[in-house]
Every structure is written in structure tokens, then in C-alpha cells.
């Protein structure tokens, strides 16, 4: 079964074709990062305006890459949530209309299930069951994954998502958008031990996170330094390094706790922040010590992309699941509400 | 007698889901339903139902028209994405039609008024507006669509002292326009509701002029481009 995947939940237009026998046939992405960089964050109306200009040319591009005609599409998967409602609507209208015109089934896919399953596109995919750390601009969640659709929430952020904290801190430090790669690049030049940063919620049991206090701590520290003298590039690099290390320490500690609590030995990290090299390196080292391993997608499939939606959709469409054309979008959609395969 | 052009017209620029279909025999089938915040859900099923009602296969269509704006940004994108996708799948052209022109044409059809001042509520204390004239059964644009507060509408002197008819939700607060403009109006239709038949009629004219475009090129006419402030 060949499935066209359409991702438009935020600021990337991602299109892909996945074949359940041959694997990923083609994928293409248009990132709106430059469009939103001027504003220091995603402007929803501008995101929607851009998606509608990109979708069909990207579909043409992936069909050409795969040397296929539209009639070769057997099913269509699109991101139905969570995400920006206006942006989701553009992808949904395209998917539903194409499904109607091509007479193929259509399915709204959960964006985070797409992220969670993205490592399955790799040569050596993780086997079920595993613990997943979903860590992006909108989510920080630990989930026990027993199979597709068999998800149990172990813990989540009580306030800002980790990616959101990266974005806000980068903006505060004048590093620009998107915050994750900007902070990581700046932190590479910094001394993480120069300033003391808290490790939120490590002193209490449980698997929930909190990152807003860390962001506030960074703001206070930056203001205190700036009151004494003008911030130097080295100051900013040291703050970025300290902040990143605090986030990474917190994520690593909670992942280890989750593995111990579930008795599982396999961790999957997914979502935009899973591309962070410091997080990957620290997890590999820490988990090796407890006989566990960590797996993740290639960097281009850590951020939003069409391939993960095509894959997640293909798994469910092939199992016979599909939506009618009136299925509502779900801008807020708990992952645990998904039906199991 | 000219042969009919099988076209589908879609409008979701306002609170309705409005469709008009010209079948292969030239018969026009319509569907118009209030659908505020439901358009993304109901549009495709309603197109399906209208085609079934007309006993017409989707593949018989030769063009897709849509109300391109101005109007609700989300509504414009719903119709645009639907039109783009249908046209892409069927390899047929798209006809983006100005909603202001469609209001003008619809009002001309029902009142024979020849001078039409269309104003739509653009929120934020502004109106989308444009001036249109009918000449030899054809719509001419005198002032193209723009957006501004009603009291700042610039009315070219050349177009005064005609029998102007005001159409559209922007006239619900007619007192917000300058007294001079209010004095130009012979009649107001502030509660007019745009029907897709007007989009269809203008699309047939655009088709005759060969103005169709490739699916991906068809985009909404937002008119208001300032949607945020730089930080």
C-alpha cells in the first residue's frame, strides 16, 4: 500500500510517500523558519498562508522523485492534531479532497504518534515495548509504548515543553529562532559549570517535568549580569551551556527513572529536541551503564516531517482504519486516546 | 448557442458553505448552507452530494472556481485548498474569483443596479471595499479591492453622482462612512449573503477569456497582509 503523508501542524510543510512493502519512497520538506525568524516565533496566520502555497508543489516533487503518478496513491494520511488549527486545516482540506478525488481512504494521524514512530523508518528500528521520550516545542512526555496505539503516559511537563524553554531562552539571549539549534551551537563555545542552574523536579519522586522555573532562572541571571556590565559573547555562551546542561540532566534523569519504573531496557527519543547532540551523547553514556539502549531517528526526521505521518498513517490504514471526510481536527489530542492496532 | 462548461464553484468566504455546479447540459445545481466553523468538515461531503444530485461524475468537470477573497482568512483557505486539490487531481484549471466582484454581480443580477459599492466588514474597525460598474452585461472594476477604516475610504471624483448601490456587511454600519459617501448611496443591501452562483457566473466569463490557472498557482486574495507586528 502506497500512502501519501501530509504534515502541516506548525511551521514545516512535509510531504512523503511510504510503501508498506518497499519502505519510504520519497519525502520533501519546506521549512518556514526564515519566515518566522523575524518575529521570534511562529505566527500562525503566516504559517497557514505559507502551507497553502507549498503543499501541491511538494506533492508533485515527491511523486516525481518516486517516478509515480497520482493514481499510484492507495491512501492518504495527514496530521489531524495536535497543532495550530489553521495550519492543520490546510493539510486536512488537501488530504480529504484528494482522497475524494482519487477515491482512496484517508486518515487523520496524531502528530506525536508520527514522531514516536519516526525511528521505525531507520535501518535498525526499535522493537516494542520501549519507553519513549517525546520532546519538542509543544510536548515533553514520557510514554510506555507496548505497540502502535498502546500508549501509557508516565509523565509530562507541567508547564513549558523543553523545546519551548529552548526557544524562549534563545530569544531572551538574543540568539534567534529556532532556539534548540541556536542554544546548542552557542553552548558548544561555553562553560556549563560557570553558573549554577537548578535541575527542576529531580528532588521529588515521579516522572513529570517543569521547565518554566529554569527559564525564569535564566532571565534573572541574565538581568543580574547585565546590571553589572554589558553581556559579553562568552557570558551568553556560558549561560547557554549551563541552561542546556540543566535541561539535558533533567531529561536524562527522568528517562532513567522511567526505564527503572517499567523494567524496560529500550528508550526511544523523538521530536525536535531529540536532535540535540548533547542529549543523545549523555543518554547513550548513561543508559549503557544500566544495560539499556537509546534509539532515535535521523536528524531530518526528528523535526516535523511528512515521512513520519506517511509511516504512521500507513500502519493504521493497512490495518483497515480510516476516517470519513467529516472527522473533526484535534488541535488538542491526548496520545493515549488513540485506538490500538 | 454556446455549449455549457461543466464548472464547480465553491464559496466559504463567509459563514456559509455555498456551492454551484453547472452540469454537462448547462443546468445549474446549487447548495447553500449556514456552516460557521464547520466548513472544513462539511465542504467535501457537500460537493459529493451535489454531484450525486446532478448525476454527474467528478471527472466531467472542466474547471473549479472559488471565492478567493477578501473574506475570512480560514474560509478562503478552505475553499482554495479544496479547489486546488480537485483541479490537481483532475488536471483542470482553477478560477479564483474576487468575492467583492461576486457580490457586485449577484446584486446586479437581482436589482439591475449598474453602479455597485461593495463593502465587507473586515473586523478591526476596517472594511474591504471596491467599486464596480456594469457595462454591456459585463463587470468592470473601477476601484479594486482594498482595506481601510470606512471613514478613510477614498472615492474618486470621477465616480460621483451615479445611482450607487451599497452591498455587503460593511454597510451595516453605514454611519461610519463619510457623510459624502453616505449621500452617494441610493440603496443599501447590508444583509446580502454571497451565493456561489455568482462565483460560477463570473468563472464562466473567466473561462471564456481563458483566465484559468494551474492548481498550485491559485491563491486566496487576502487584501490584508499586515497580520502581526515584528518583535
From TrEMBL, chain A:
<dbReference type="GO" id="GO:0061711">
    <property type="term" value="F:tRNA N(6)-L-threonylcarbamoyladenine synthase activity"/>
</dbReference>
<keyword id="KW-0408">Iron</keyword>
<feature type="binding site">
    <location>
        <position position="167"/>
    </location>
    <ligand>
        <name>substrate</name>
    </ligand>
</feature>
<dbReference type="Pfam" id="PF00814">
    <property type="entry name" value="TsaD"/>
</dbReference>
<keyword id="KW-0012">Acyltransferase</keyword>
<dbReference type="InterPro" id="IPR017861">
    <property type="entry name" value="KAE1/TsaD"/>
</dbReference>
<protein>
    <recommendedName>
        <fullName>tRNA N6-adenosine threonylcarbamoyltransferase</fullName>
        <ecNumber>2.3.1.234</ecNumber>
    </recommendedName>
</protein>
<keyword id="KW-0819">tRNA processing</keyword>
<comment type="function">
    <text>Required for the formation of a threonylcarbamoyl group on adenosine at position 37 (t(6)A37) in tRNAs that read codons beginning with adenine. Is involved in the transfer of the threonylcarbamoyl moiety of threonylcarbamoyl-AMP (TC-AMP) to the N6 group of A37, together with TsaE and TsaB. TsaD likely plays a direct catalytic role in this reaction.</text>
</comment>
<dbReference type="InterPro" id="IPR000905">
    <property type="entry name" value="Gcp-like_dom"/>
</dbReference>
<feature type="binding site">
    <location>
        <position position="304"/>
    </location>
    <ligand>
        <name>Fe cation</name>
    </ligand>
</feature>
<feature type="binding site">
    <location>
        <position position="115"/>
    </location>
    <ligand>
        <name>Fe cation</name>
    </ligand>
</feature>
<feature type="binding site">
    <location>
        <begin position="134"/>
        <end position="138"/>
    </location>
    <ligand>
        <name>substrate</name>
    </ligand>
</feature>
<feature type="binding site">
    <location>
        <position position="276"/>
    </location>
    <ligand>
        <name>substrate</name>
    </ligand>
</feature>
<dbReference type="GO" id="GO:0005737">
    <property type="term" value="C:cytoplasm"/>
</dbReference>
<keyword id="KW-0963">Cytoplasm</keyword>
<feature type="binding site">
    <location>
        <position position="180"/>
    </location>
    <ligand>
        <name>substrate</name>
    </ligand>
</feature>
<dbReference type="InterPro" id="IPR022450">
    <property type="entry name" value="TsaD"/>
</dbReference>
<dbReference type="GO" id="GO:0005506">
    <property type="term" value="F:iron ion binding"/>
</dbReference>
<dbReference type="InterPro" id="IPR017860">
    <property type="entry name" value="Peptidase_M22_CS"/>
</dbReference>
<dbReference type="GO" id="GO:0002949">
    <property type="term" value="P:tRNA threonylcarbamoyladenosine modification"/>
</dbReference>
<dbReference type="InterPro" id="IPR043129">
    <property type="entry name" value="ATPase_NBD"/>
</dbReference>
TrEMBL record, chain B:
<dbReference type="GO" id="GO:0005829">
    <property type="term" value="C:cytosol"/>
</dbReference>
<dbReference type="InterPro" id="IPR022496">
    <property type="entry name" value="T6A_TsaB"/>
</dbReference>
<dbReference type="InterPro" id="IPR000905">
    <property type="entry name" value="Gcp-like_dom"/>
</dbReference>
<dbReference type="InterPro" id="IPR043129">
    <property type="entry name" value="ATPase_NBD"/>
</dbReference>
<feature type="domain" description="Gcp-like">
    <location>
        <begin position="34"/>
        <end position="177"/>
    </location>
</feature>
<dbReference type="Pfam" id="PF00814">
    <property type="entry name" value="TsaD"/>
</dbReference>
<dbReference type="GO" id="GO:0002949">
    <property type="term" value="P:tRNA threonylcarbamoyladenosine modification"/>
</dbReference>
<comment type="similarity">
    <text>Belongs to the KAE1 / TsaD family. TsaB subfamily.</text>
</comment>
<protein>
    <recommendedName>
        <fullName>tRNA threonylcarbamoyladenosine biosynthesis protein TsaB</fullName>
    </recommendedName>
</protein>
